[in-house]
Amino acid sequence: MIKLQNIEKYYAAKGLKSYILRHVSTTINQGEFVSIMGPSGAGKSTLLNILGMLEEPTYGTYEFMGEDVTSLNERKRIELYRNHIGFVFQAYHLIDEMTVAENIEAPLLYKKIGSAERRSRVADMLDRFNIVGKKDLFPNQLSGGQQQLVGIARALAAQPSIILADEPTGNLQSAQALQIMDLFKKLNEEENITVIQVTHSEVNAGYGSRILHLLDGVIKEDVNLSESLKP
Amino acid sequence: MFRLNFKIALRNLWKNKGYTLINVGGLAIGLASCMVLLLYVAYEWGYDRQSKNFADTYVVYQHQPSSTGTMSWAWTPGVLAPDLAASVPGAVTASHSSYPEAQLLTYHQNFFKKPGVYSDPQFLKMMDYKFLKGNPDRALREVNSIVLTETMAKNLFGDEDPINKVIKFNNKEELKVDGVIADIPKNSSIIFDYLMPWSFWETQLPFIKASGWGNNFCLTLLQLQKGQDYSKANELASQVLRKHQNGATGYYSLHKLSKWHLYNEYQNGKPVGGKIDQVRIFFLLAFCILLIACVNFMNLSTARSEKRAKEVGVRKAIGSTRASLMGQFMLESLLLSILGMMVAFVLIEMSLPYFNGLLHTELLIEYSDWKFWAVFGGLTLVTGCIAGSYPAFYLSSFEPLQVLKGFKMTGSTSLSVRQVLVVFQFVFAACLIICTAVIYQQLNYIKGKSIGYNKNNLIEIPLQGPMRANEQKMKLLKDQLLKSGAVTDVTFFSRSISEGGHNTFGVSWQGKSPKEEVLFNYRSTGYDFPKTMGSGMISGRDFSPEYTDSTNVIVNETAVKTMGLKNPVGSVIEFWDKPVKIIGVMKDFVMENPYSQTAPMIIYNKMEDTEVVLARLNARANVSSSIEKIKEVTEKLNPGFPVDTKFVDDSFEEKFQNEKLLGIIANWFGGFAIFISCLGLLGLALFMAEQRKKEISIRKVLGASNMNILTLLNKDFIKLVVIADLIAFPIAYVIVNKWLSAYSFRVSISVLPFAIALCLSLIIAILTVSVQSVKVAKANPVDALKYE
Question: Pick from A175, B235, B313, B332: CA 20 to 30 A from residue A61's CA?
Answer without folding.
Answer: B313
